[in-house]
Design goal:
By secondary structure, the chain is an alpha/beta fold. It folds into two domains: about 180 residues, Quinone Oxidoreductase, Chain A, domain 1, CATH 3.90.180; about 140 residues, NAD(P)-binding Rossmann-like Domain (Rossmann fold, 3-Layer(aba) Sandwich), CATH 3.40.50. The chain is about 25% helix and about 20% strand. It is globular and about 60 Å long. The two termini are about 20 Å apart.
């Protein structure tokens, strides 16, 4: 990213390796809608000459003198969120915000990202995980962001056995929210999205009903399909600021609205006083950045290792060569009908 609304290639020095850190070269990367928000919407403010990208599987080329568990040549998963684990926030259970709001998100926020020949990983022992031998780098890169973000939506919604859940937005994150809700035991899952490729994927991941927002008001469609009953939980993984108003109209008293959608534009979220039970409906609205760190990557990689989760369904566009990163970013910006997620092997 050269500046807002402009991307291109830039020459930078190879990053230096601190005593607890690692230098990694990417083997597989994937552009993200978050990169689009950063470049084309200025969602996190002005950025200049910043290397984009926060989804990668790579090969370790150098480790610091205090790194214990990794060595050059290891193939590793790099989470999008790489906290500072000695921070006060991490000790509070909010490692994503180590050092301040969203500061566990370093790559392509205030630190150069992974779309480079080499990139830096802070606190390597706490922020990298070995890629299982039976998982490909292409599959593994979905563990960097898509899987943990979608699952975080289901976790924050506290989805329980037999509950009815609506997932608004079924891009790759929303699809993983569907999968996460299904694995947590949801009974009925409404998946809201318009692209047929995403609708079919949602069914494979456990959605029982598909709602197309282009065919009418989603609130009305869900209410009619659900015999006018409210749903137990709503996960917002796409859409816009109006998605919160829609969620409040379909949630039951005591329900949870869990947002994992990166709100790239707009100033305020409107909450209907009446739909929120005039402030007394016991309806929780939570929003969370995905957890980072090694433990989460190792646990989630077990789902791929033991074939409990098939992320290959997400990989609709595959390219070989670092030069295709720009094309992948353009795909995430334009969202063609046949796209779920691009992946570039290097």
């Amino acid at each position: 990213m050269l500046r807002l609304n402009e991307v291109g290639w830039i020459e930078k020095d190879r990053p230096a390796c601190g005593p607890k850190d690692a230098i990694v070269r990417p083997l597989a990367v994937s552009p993200c809608t978050s990169d689009v928000h950063t470049v084309y919407e200025g969602a996190i403010g002005e950025r200049f000459n910043l290397i984009l990208g926060h989804e990668a599987v790579g090969q370790v080329v150098e480790v610091g003198s205090l790194v214990k568990d990794f060595k050059p040549g290891d193939t590793v998963i790099i989470p999008a969120i790489t906290p500072d684990w000695e921070s006060v926030e991490a000790q509070m259970g909010l490692s994503q915000h180590s050092g301040g709001m969203l500061c566990g998100w370093k790559f392509s926020n205030f630190k150069d990202g992974v779309f480079a020949e080499f990139f830096h990983v802070n606190e390597a022992d706490g922020n990298m995980a070995l890629l299982p031998k039976n998982v490909t780098p292409e599959e593994g890169v979905m563990l960097s962001d898509m899987v943990p973000t979608g699952f975080h939506g289901a976790d924050n919604a506290e989805v329980a056995y037999g509950e009815t859940v609506a997932v608004i937005g079924i891009g790759p994150v929303g699809l993983m929210a569907v999968a996460g809700a299904n694995l947590r035991g949801a009974g009925r899952i409404f998946a809201v999205g318009s692209r047929e490729v995403c609708q079919e994927a949602a069914k494979k991941y456990g959605a029982t009903d598909v709602v197309n927002y282009k065919q009418g008001d989603i609130v009305q469609q869900i209410q009619e399909a659900n015999s006018k009953k409210p749903v137990d939980k709503v996960i917002i993984a796409g859409g816009d600021l109006a998605s919160f108003e829609q969620a409040l109209k379909i949630i039951r008293p005591g329900g949870i609205i869990s947002n994992v959608n990166y709100l790239g534009s707009g100033d305020y979220i409107k909450i209907s006083r009446l739909d929120w039970g005039v402030g007394m409906g016991h309806i929780r609205i939570v929003g969370g950045l995905m957890p980072g760190g090694r433990k989460n990557m190792e646990y989630l990689s077990n789902l791929l290792k033991y074939r409990k989760l098939d992320v290959s369904i997400l990989l609709t566009h595959r390219y070989k060569g670092i030069e295709h990163i720009e094309k992948g970013l353009a795909l995430m910006k334009d969202k063609p009908r046949d796209l779920i997620k691009p992946v570039i092997t290097i």
